[in-house]
Amino acid sequence: MWMRTGLLIGALLSSLNVSAKEWLIDVRTAEEYSAEHVPGATHIDYQQVVPEVTKLGISKQEPIQLYCRSGRRAEIARQALMQHGFQRVTNLGSVAAAQTKAQGREN
Fold first, then answer.
1. How many CB atoms lie within 10 A of CB 104?
2. d(CA 105, CA 57)
3. How far, in Å, CA of 5 to CA of 18, rounded?
4. Enzyme catalytic residues
5. Longest dimension (CA), the chain
6. Nearest CA to 72 among 46, 97, 50?
7. What angle do CA 86, 92, 75 make, to 5 degrees?
8. How far apart are CA 74 and CA 62, in angstroms?
9. Residues 6+ apart with CB under 8 A from 90
10. pLDDT digits over 10-68, tens only?
């Protein structure tokens, strides 16, 4: 009886679509972030992205999307995260591009 129950629970759990949180990170300066940012974005300066992402407990399999003013700092941060084993890191480019993507998710 218990074995059957365990098998049923295992089958149910494996069929659930468990998705990781999708992280949106603004890698600009604190001043830039304060002036304007995409709602829901977390601020982490691009030079501190690896230790801060680690401190937040973001797993290496969770999707991380980065943006800055033009995409240059986001690309530096993306490469640093990839070098440390983070697998799903995307450079969205500018604030405007990140805003457009965020609005597309809401619709």
1. 8
2. 24
3. 21
4. 68
5. 61
6. 46
7. 60
8. 17
9. 63, 64, 65, 66, 78
10. 443 343 344 458 999 999 999 999 999 999 999 999 999 999 999 999 999 999 999 99
Q: What is the pLDDT of residues 84-104, one digit of tens each?
A: 999 999 999 999 999 998 887
The answer for residues whose C-beta is within 8 angstroms of residue 22's C-beta and 6 or more apart is 62, 63, 64, 65
> Which ranges constitute the DSSP H helices of the chain?
2-15, 30-35, 49-56, 72-83, 95-106
CB atoms within 10 A of CB 54: 13
Q: Which amino acid is at 47?
A: Q
Q: Are 55 and 32 in contact (CB under 8 A)?
A: no
For 34, the 3-state DSSP assignment is helix
> By 3-state DSSP, what share of the chain in percent is helix, strand and coil, each rounded to 5?
50, 15, 35
